[in-house]
Amino acid sequence: MAATLIDGRKIAGEIKEKLTEEIKMLKEKGVSPSLSSIQVGEDPGTKVYVRSQKKSCEKIGIEYNLHQFKEDVSQKELEDFINHLNQDKKVSGIILQMPLPSHIDGRGLQRIISSQKDAEGISPANMGMVVYARPILGPCTAMAVMELIKSTGVKLYGKEAVMVGHSDIVGKPTTLLLLDKFVTTSVCHIATGERGTLPKYVRKAEILIVAVGKANLIKGEWVKEGAIVIDVGINRVEGKIVGDVEFEVAKERASFITPVPGGVGPVTTAMLLKNTVEAARLQTK
């Protein structure tokens, strides 16, 4: 029996509906949430993402301001600009668009974004709160993954999960959030693949999350019968957008699965908006 598709667009829509009401109430109190986006260069993918962010923000009442810099901007100029935004009381949230030119230290810039204005939830202070299981402005994609799993209604306590990918913004925080729900969690990465043991781990996963960025890395036949599959990967193959999981085979084995596109992506954007609204609220306290 084919898996139930987890509709990320529907879940994102429900989150945005609630945020629209929250924003109205904040504005009645004189608080107007705003998101300042920093883009360096003319990366085509970034342009698409920025347009999507702007549209999503404006639709629910968040002011969106894009600040564009030329490719040859210096580290110091960007640091000074971020510090300026940190001090600007009209700015609720800040997001630094990736990728950045090779001469720019992106992590260094993310570290200086005020933790109360960190719309992506990836500053050291906010990532630290994930360790304490009290995310305030949590990492957007990791929080989206948890929201998608929650939507299945499956009880997580005691389940066995496998996280494929150990990035700072997805794999590591998602693992910590799962552990907080008493899920036994294994983390796989490139070394797991090199040893040839990745299929063994995947086959035991009752909850499988994949965030690598390699099309069809996870073969559908590896997926455990009845598993929940969350595919974070976005890859372009022959003009189509596909995930990291071999979808057509996996959906015949899983109980729930996210499509690509239309799964994790929309909810990640909704979490960015949620963080921006929460940041605006934090700054009024």
Describe the protein's architecture and organization.
- The protein is an alpha/beta fold.
- Helices cover 43% and strands 16% of the residues.
- The chain has eleven helices and eleven strands.
- The protein has a six-stranded parallel β-sheet.
- Helix 6 (140-151) packs across helix 11.
- It is globular.
- The N and C termini lie far apart (51 Å).
- The model has no long low-confidence stretch (mean pLDDT 96).
- Range of strand content: 15-25%
Which structural class do the helices and strands define? alpha/beta
According to DSSP, the number of beta strands is 11
Count of runs of 4 or more consecutive helical residues: 11
Low-confidence stretches: none
What is the terminal-to-terminal distance? 51 Å
Cα-atom Rg, whole angstroms?
19 Å
Mean pLDDT level: 96
- Note the overall shape: globular
Main sheet summary: 6 strands, parallel
List SSEs in N-to-C order. Answer: EHEHEHEHHHEHEHHEEEEHEH
The strand line-up of the biggest sheet is 1-11-8-7-5-6
Helix content percent band: 40-55%
